[in-house]
UniProtKB/TrEMBL annotation:
TM segment ranges: 19-37
Acidic residues composition bias: residue spans: 45-59
Protein name, UniProt field: Uncharacterized protein
Keywords carried by this UniProt record: Membrane, Transmembrane, Transmembrane helix
Low complexity: bias regions: 60-71
Record lineage: Bacteria, Pseudomonadati, Pseudomonadota, Alphaproteobacteria, Rhodobacterales
Compositionally biased residues, Pro residues: 85-94
Annotated region (Disordered), positions in chain: 45-94
Entry superkingdom: Bacteria
Length: 94
């Protein structure tokens, strides 16, 4: 089946704007891609970029004396004693 109204001059006129818009969009995308590639591939990696990040001098563990606050905080320093390991049970036959 063919289209009932095939006026080629009118169709060229109607499609001219969208075709120009698509061409401009593709051109902008290609220029942007080339710009990004030139920025990323044109720079050399220096020793500073590859250096390990600086270590913070923070320690992990319980806070210094009395700086823990909680629901029953009275303002007095809190101390925590480690739990004692239970004594091993004797083996049968000993």
């Amino acid at each position: 089946m063919t289209a009932p109204d095939t006026n080629l001059k009118k169709q060229k006129k109607r499609h001219k704007g969208p075709l120009i818009g698509m061409a401009v969009a593709v051109t902008v995308a290609v220029v942007f891609l080339l710009w990004m590639l030139s920025n990323n591939l044109g720079t050399e990696v220096t020793d500073e970029d590859q250096a390990a990040p600086a270590q913070d001098e923070e320690t992990v563990g319980p806070p210094a004396s009395g700086s823990v606050s909680g629901p029953g905080d009275t303002g007095a320093p809190q101390s925590f004693e480690p739990e004692q390991a239970p004594e091993p049970e004797p083996l049968p036959g000993e």
